[in-house]
Amino acid sequence: MPDFSVHVGSGIADADVIAVYESVGWTAYTGEPEVLVRAIRNSAFVVTCRDGAGEIVGLARAISDDATICYVQDILVRPSFQGSGAGRAMLEAIQSRYRHVRQTVLITDNGPGQRGFYQTLGFTEGSDFSPEPLRMFAKFR
Ligand SMILES: CC(C)(COP(=O)(O)OP(=O)(O)OC[C@H]1O[C@@H](n2cnc3c(N)ncnc32)[C@H](O)[C@@H]1OP(=O)(O)O)[C@@H](O)C(=O)NCCC(=O)NCCS
Q1: Whole-prediction pTM
Q2: Which residue has a Cα nearest atom 37 of ligand 1?
Q3: Closest CA to 46 of 106, 6, 86
Q4: What does the pLDDT look like over 104-136, one tens digit per residue?
Q5: CATH, domain 5-106, list 3.50.50.60, 3.60.15.10, 3.40.630.30, 3.30.70.20
Q6: Ligand 1 pocket by C-beta < 6 Å: which residues?
């Protein structure tokens, strides 16, 4: 099982940020690297996983008012480290930091992998909420 350590903070070299987003093929971000770097710097909470050599193998970030809501914007793990617990460690770090807020929300791709991951971590998809399903709206530029 690959070994990693968890680090909190957005002080990450720009090239390292771009490399980890490239590793999962998120071209919507890597196509505008200066926007991605600004997004990381301006996020309320950033957590990374690093391997033994200090290389970033995972990153997650949250947007929050630190009172009522925490929005998990990104969580990504290099393919070679997926399944090693890095995603869980980073999401738990976000949940621990924002344990006082009522709502933790996110939007993600419609794949079975994402559904399985978030359900394992205790999240409920909006359409499965009880007694009433939740409705999610989004508008992308
Ligand atoms: C989704 C992602 C962040 C998960 O990170 P990961 O490090 O591979 O996941 P972990 O090893 O920490 O798994 C945590 C738990 O989720 C479960 N899980 C992970 N992927 C799963 C899947 N595809 N189906 C079902 N369960 C899954 C694991 O079984 C594990 O459960 P356990 O801790 O009880 O054993 C990672 O696969 C990834 O970066 N994917 C590409 C980018 C992406 O889609 N990000 C999410 C959208 S924002």
Answers
A1: 0.96
A2: 82
A3: 6
A4: 999 999 999 999 999 999 999 999 999 999 999
A5: 3.40.630.30
A6: 24, 74-77, 82-88, 108-109, 113-114, 116-117, 120
